[in-house]
Amino acid sequence: MREVPLSLNSREFLSSVLKEGLRPDAREGYDYRDIKISFGPQWGHAEVLLGRTRVLARVSTAVATPAPSRPNEGALFFNVHLSPLSSSKFSGARSDFSTVVTRLLERTIKETRVIDTECLCIVAGEKVLNLRVDITLLDFAGNVIDASCIAAMTALSHFRRPDFIVNGDEITVFSDKDRDPIPLSVLHVPITCTIGFSGEKILVDPDDEEESVMDGYVSIATNTHHEICYIYLGGGVTLTPALVSKCCEISSLKTQEISAQITKSLDEDSALRRKAGTDRPSAISSLTLQEKLDRLYVEDRTNKRENLAAEDGIENATFGSITIRYIDELDTVDEDGVAALSRPAPESVQSIPNTSQEEESFPGF
Amino acid sequence: MAETETKEIPDKPSIVVCGDTFNIPANKDLTVGPGLVFRNNAITCTKPGVIKSNDKSVWIDRNNRRYVPVLEERVVGIIIGRVMDEYRIDIGGAHVAMMSSIAFEGATQRNKPELKPGNVVFARVIAANKDVEPELACVNKKGKANGLQVLEGGHIIQCSLGLCRKLRQHKSPLTQPLLNHFKSFELCVGMNGRIWVRSDTNKHTVAISIYLKQCEHLSVSDAVMSLRHTVKALG
After folding, report:
1. What sign has the CA pseudo-torsion A271, A274, A275, A281?
2. Which residues of B15-48 are buried (b: 16+ CB within 10 A; e: fewer)?
3. Would you call A128 helix, strand, or coil by DSSP?
4. Predicted TM-score (pTM) of this structure
5. CB atoms < 10 A from the CB of A62, how many?
6. DSSP-assigned beta bridge partners for residue A165
């Protein structure tokens, strides 16, 4: 569908509204629009709704050869797709703006070393786990940059990578059924804050109407430790040092709020998965079909599940304790790594009992 | 194709899908409206929606966002260019509409409004054919404007076609709250999903725009409550 042209009337109206100090959607001060974060069934699938801008982020892994300059680190790739279904502005082909967003995410997340990539090394110099974050814009209503960054950070914090074991020359990368996947090691959480400028006025989190009339913008990524991770000037404006300073303060403030919201939504998702039992997929494979089906409909069956647990039925009988074996304890692992699960845990190896009442704090925060 | 049972046109509004057929009522003359087609001695639905009928006509109500030009409808168009003596106007349909540069009240070749890309007109559709570009005019058949004109100032918002139809109803419950809250404002509702709003202050225009966008999804009472909040917030 053709893009609706911006009429002269609307352009003048928006300019004069901004000049008055109002915002076209009656937001006050430095308010962001409502942010809603939701997750998909797979680990690393996060969808963020910022006002009406909707962004989907998916994280996936692949085993690959490392770059020769970094032989014992996994790589992190970003790919931003501005889908034509989000707006008639985008044709689906690689555009300047999609490159801007991709580079911005790379610089904010990859180059500030958010993920500990050394954990992704399988065999130094030969095999590593590469991470790939695919970001798709589903609905365009302004401020794609912030929505993409929030989605990417949420997806990376949510994602669980496959467990692997190196036994001499043999590398075994376990499927989710055999061994529970492991969360990534997220060292800090940078969140971008895009601030538009129209004359003298500052527009925090510009929506599509404001973007069509603003002079320029700046995106500042800060983390919860008040460190500035990246500053990107979108052009069109010259900024004074005082203004940049002010924008950094605003960004810092917003990062605290948004980080708190991300943590909260991750915790809620964890709790939901724990109730359904889907946070430990390796446990599920040993259940009978009926038990698996019971776990699918968690909202309706929460009461039923608690009753079952009380009877000491499903939870403890089917699978004993789940063990996580570290790579330097190779001597205790069988050739068939899967079979080791059914053996009782030796005292030297740390074991995690499977209780759903246990409180787990989310790594990285 | 299997024979579908034809039934009577329902008294109460009910949901129909494409292909549903109805008997022609024997005792009255009905005008068959949008979404319905008179075919093979029966009335067939060609669009999904809610079928409604009154004494004189039967039609299908549905909501959509893509505009298909219909003869004699009033639309809000945005000028995107000029070709010799005609303006090219975007009305949100599949084709770009054309309007003669002298299709205004009292206009002659020497004395006519000079419009630029970005200007907004409220025009009526004088030719609407699915294969040809639609044509517009800012005059009625007798040469009088009757409300059709170039719109100055104000703001344009996009909405669904169903909302536009609701707003154009006589004494629509959606526009009554605006009359209670604002002393003076102007609304120009195009059947193509565009509403032009103008008010004496920017704050009022912002409040009205937000209210209209919310009418899409909220019930009237919720939208009115939200309007009060917005007006209070704007001061």
Report:
1. positive
2. ebeeebbbeeeeeeebebeebbeeeeeebbbebe
3. strand
4. 0.79
5. 12
6. A172
Q: Which residues of B92-120 are buried (b: 16+ CB within 10 A; e: fewer)?
A: bbebbbbbbbbbbeebeeeeeeebeebbb
Task: Look at residue A299 and give its three-state secondary structure.
Answer: helix
Give the model's confidence band at A359: pLDDT under 50 very low, under 70 low, under 90 confident, else very high.
very low
Q: Is the dihedral of CA A200, A205, A209, A212 positive or negative?
A: positive
Any A CB within 8 A of B206 CB:
yes
The percent of chain B in helix, strand and coil, each rounded to the nearest 5, is 20, 30, 50
The rounded distance, in Å, linking the Cα atoms of A144 and A36 is 15
Q: Evaluate whether ipTM surpasses 0.90.
A: no
The answer to whether A193 and A255 have CB atoms below 8 angstroms apart is yes
For residues A12-26, average pLDDT: 92
DSSP bridge partners of B78: B90, B120
Given a contact cutoff of 8 angstroms between Cβ atoms, the answer to whether A349 and A323 are in contact is yes
CB of A282 within 8 A of CB of A178? Answer: yes
Q: Are A136 and A83 in contact (CB under 8 A)?
A: yes
Angstrom distance (rounded) from CA A360 to CA A263: 13
What is the 3 state secondary structure string of A156-177?
Answer: HHHCEECCEEEECCEEEECCCC
Q: Which residues pair with B42 in a beta bridge?
A: B39
Q: Please say if the pLDDT value at position A318 is more than 80.
A: no
User: Hey, are the CB atoms on B120 and A7 less than 8 Å from each other?
Assistant: yes
The answer to whether the beta carbons of residues A39 and A46 sit under 8 Å apart is yes
Closest by CA to A90, choosing from A213, A3, A206, is A3
Q: Which of A8, A28, A139, A208 to mutate to test the interface with B (most CBs of B within 10 A)?
A: A8
**Residue owning tokens 């046109």:** B9
Angstrom distance (rounded) from CA A221 to CA B107: 57
> CB distance from B118 to chain A under 8 Å?
yes
* Interface contact A16, partner B, CB < 8 A: yes
Cross-chain CB nearest to B78 (options A7, A13, A16): A7
